[in-house]
Amino acid sequence: MMKLSLLISVVILLLSVFPAQQDKYYRERQLMVKTQLESRGIVHKPTLKAMRSVKRHLLVPRDQEKNAYEDRPLPIGYGQTISQPYMVGYMTEVIRPKKGMKVLEIGTGSGYQAAVLGEIVDEVYTIEIIEQLAKTSRSRLGDMGYTNIHVKEGDGYFGWEEHAPFDAIVVTAASAFIPPPLIEQLKEGGKMVIPVGAPFTTQQLMLVEKQKGGKRTTRNLLPVRFVPFTRN
Ligand code: SAH
């Protein structure tokens, strides 16, 4: 009996000391951050830290698990994709997230971008138009222990009025124009990142900043390809 309990203690100790033992993708994830993010100029510490820790493989469909840390978007069903890790890192860094902030995301998809934000800011409100994706991501994020991420099924065009204004807004589907309700729900001094352009072509990732007094400035960041922003 003594021996068994000793063995159990040793195993528990090993599991707590070596993260790689309890997480079979630990190394791949550290390598992803190093080779796909840091090497391409992502420097924002909280973003890098969050992406070193969020288990991306738990948010993709089972048959994509082994590809989860690859340098590309992956299919998540319903014609949708989880963005390439670099894109998630870039969009996270550009809004300069920090503790105390409340962020709105449009296009929950897999829930990965929401999880990365959820590691850094106080509250994440995220909206997904496809019912099944909203349900799946809500349940997976819950299983992963995120109590500060709130998933709503609906059309993100209208934002989430009852929790507005937001310190930052991250839109992960390409829209022909910036939905006015989202600008409305951005705090003064807040930042929104959004891919703007026609679907199925190259779009521009844009940074929109709402100045004190409400004046808006926009800046083109880089050409991107996102799935379309759809309307019910
Ligand atoms: N951020 C996601 C990326 C998912 S792809 C991730 O980390 O996995 C973009 C998502 O936006 C898709 O799931 C799509 O269904 C959703 N979407 C498109 N138009 C939308 C709209 N009007 N409101 C809310 N979600 C929308």
Automatic annotation (TrEMBL):
<comment type="similarity">
    <text>Belongs to the methyltransferase superfamily. L-isoaspartyl/D-aspartyl protein methyltransferase family.</text>
</comment>
<feature type="active site">
    <location>
        <position position="83"/>
    </location>
</feature>
<keyword id="KW-0963">Cytoplasm</keyword>
<dbReference type="GO" id="GO:0004719">
    <property type="term" value="F:protein-L-isoaspartate (D-aspartate) O-methyltransferase activity"/>
</dbReference>
<dbReference type="GO" id="GO:0005737">
    <property type="term" value="C:cytoplasm"/>
</dbReference>
<keyword id="KW-0808">Transferase</keyword>
<keyword id="KW-0489">Methyltransferase</keyword>
<dbReference type="Pfam" id="PF01135">
    <property type="entry name" value="PCMT"/>
</dbReference>
<keyword id="KW-0949">S-adenosyl-L-methionine</keyword>
<dbReference type="GO" id="GO:0030091">
    <property type="term" value="P:protein repair"/>
</dbReference>
<comment type="function">
    <text>Catalyzes the methyl esterification of L-isoaspartyl residues in peptides and proteins that result from spontaneous decomposition of normal L-aspartyl and L-asparaginyl residues. It plays a role in the repair and/or degradation of damaged proteins.</text>
</comment>
<dbReference type="GO" id="GO:0032259">
    <property type="term" value="P:methylation"/>
</dbReference>
<dbReference type="InterPro" id="IPR029063">
    <property type="entry name" value="SAM-dependent_MTases_sf"/>
</dbReference>
<dbReference type="InterPro" id="IPR000682">
    <property type="entry name" value="PCMT"/>
</dbReference>
<protein>
    <recommendedName>
        <fullName>Protein-L-isoaspartate O-methyltransferase</fullName>
        <ecNumber>2.1.1.77</ecNumber>
    </recommendedName>
</protein>
